[in-house]
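[Meeting: bench + compute handoff]

Bench side (C.D.) handed over the final construct sequence. Compute side (W.E.) agreed to return the predicted structure before the next meeting so the bench team could plan truncations. Sequence as handed over:
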Amino acid sequence: MTEAQAATTRFCARVVGPLMVIVGAVVIARAGDLVMLIPAILQDGPLTFITGVFTLICGLVLIAAHHHWNSAPAIAISLIAVLTIIRGVVLLFAPSVVTGLAHQLLNLGPGAFIAGVIALLVGAWLSFVGWFAKTA
């Protein structure tokens, strides 16, 4: 990995890590509210469309800034970017797919809580990589 690639990985980890920590913590804290909140959001066509546009923009910006796969943090960031692009495209072209997946996740019992914990842990790791680790 070149120094420029390591710097890019650290920069992206500094943004993505804290974002995932905050979103993960909110999902954990409000897991019960998400059962009603997410389906309501996904039933609003214009809101779903705009969410898809902004999700796609975020994914494209992240993959444009970071598209290498030569360390564990780099793989995680690039994978998050690709998944974000896919989520944005699916929200734009097939929002019913996202609605179905959201219903399945929310009806799994602790599904939202588990997703929040995973996001929190990955976010904490990326935050550490971005802000405190000597190398990325």
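W.E. noted at the follow-up: The mean pLDDT is 91. C.D. will use this when planning the next construct.
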